[in-house]
Amino acid sequence: MAHPTQLGFQDAASPVMEELLHFHDHALMIVLLISTLVLYIITAMVSTKLTNKYILDSQEIEIVWTILPAVILVLIALPSLRILYLMDEINDPHLTIKAMGHQWYWSYEYTDYENLGFDSYMVPTQDLAPGQFRLLETDHRMVVPMESPVRVLVSAEDVLHSWAVPSLGVKMDAVPGRLNQAAFIASRPGVFYGQCSEICGANHSFMPIVVEAVPLEHFENWSSLMLEDA
Amino acid sequence: MEMLHLTAGRVAGLLSRRGVAVFSTSGVKMASHGGVTEQTDMSVPLYCDRLDTPLPDRPYKDTLSAADKSLKQKEKGPWNSLSKEEKLALYRIMFNETYAEMKKPTGEWKTVLGGIFFFIGFTGLVVLWQRYYVYPPHPRTLDDEWQAMQVKRMLDMRVNPVEGFSAKWDYEKGQWK
After folding, report:
1. ipTM attached to this prediction
2. Do the chains contact at A132 and B139, CB–CB below 8 Å?
3. Does A49 touch chain B (CB under 8 A)?
4. Architecture of domain A13-86
């Protein structure tokens, strides 16, 4: 989760998110350099003592400031496309979970081996235990085994929603009547929070997502317990 | 084409006509082009006082008095014989303002900055009133006690342990790094 007043990304919990973090650093550095240059040029033009400011022809600089931006754009595009194709690679998930968006909660179905399904509602503020996070906690978490490729099939039962967990680098729209696939590997154990990312009605801000990545044995214990409770 | 320096006085002047129109019984003609307006003929050489145009298209004084005409005649001879006053007079025939006069500071920035601070201050008052009269009470999760419990829980959960939140906590010593 983000701490209060946090401006940057959360720490990556999946390899794809790590790549995205580094790409963002790269792109932001380019943006910073260009902005500094433009700001310098503006101040120089405003404060000049020269009176002759309206030269009307100069082929050399025109060539430079056409070629150079094209080069910069290529330098941004290449890493970007690399990550795009990385995200789209054929993977071999160990586990498939269906995340269904409803108004206004998520439901998760683990149907690979047994029929496990449960709803995940936000914990209302007045019911929070001391120290819990307001508007982020849910009654049931989506538990996944860590360091295993997981496939999430995202869909919706009523209106558009979007299943997003920033620290895993995942955001996938939940479209009624459509299955969207998102894949991730949780590289470290932990609890990762996200919020519905497509406007879906009155309680759109109050249907969070909590993913808990645990070692495999813990995951197996949890799923057995959940099946007994059902 | 002249620079319109937006001072507080001018703003008041611009708005006063509208104000008069509201209160007067006879309607004041509100269209700003009620009659034939003066238009500049752009097809003839024009004079301008501009920093980036040292030599305007025509001299400032078009019609010369008799004294000016005789001065122009004297200008055709050697310039050493011209006195300082005559040189200045010739300059003023050619140009309206000197570069120093054109570059003179106007003080417009004081009006602009003053206006900005005034409206920021007014906004601040509105915000203060809002916080007191409009906003509902804080949720209990914003209390110091709850925030402290939350921080402890975030550290226990190892939230952002790589470079972020928990990375700044020294777990051995039990204090922030």
Report:
1. 0.89
2. no
3. no
4. Orthogonal Bundle (1.10)
Best mutation target among B146, B159, B169 (most A Cβ atoms within 10 Å) is B159
Residues of chain B with Cβ-Cβ distance to A206 below 8 Å are none
Q: Provide the residue type at A87 as one letter.
A: M
Per-residue b/e over A184-218, b at no fewer than 16 CB within 10 Å? bbbbbbbbbbbbbbbebeeebeebbbbbbbbeeee
Residue closest to A50 by CA, chosen among B165, B169, B21, B54: B54
pLDDT per residue over A73-108, tens digit each?
999 999 999 999 999 998 999 999 999 999 999 999
Task: Give me the architecture of the A93-227 domain, per CATH.
Answer: Sandwich (2.60)
pLDDT of residue B2: 44
Per-domain residue ranges for chain A?
A: 13-86, 93-227
A1–chain B Cβ distance below 8 A for any pair? yes
User: What was the pLDDT predicted at A50?
Assistant: 82
Q: What's the pLDDT tens digit per position in B92-102?
A: 999 999 999 99
Choose among B52, B152, B159: nearest Cβ to A1. Answer: B159
Comparing C-alpha atoms, which of A141, A154, A159 is closest to residue A212?
A141
Render pLDDT for A18-27 as a digit per residue (tens, 0 to 9). 999 999 999 9
- Which residue among A6, A51, A54 places its CB closest to the CB of B51? A51
- To probe the interface with A, which of B162, B166, B168, B176 has the most A CB atoms within 10 Å? B162
User: How much is the mean pLDDT over chain A?
Assistant: 95
Instruction: Enter the pTM of the model.
Output: 0.80
CA distances from A47 to A39, A51, A192, B101, B113 (A): 12, 11, 51, 18, 19
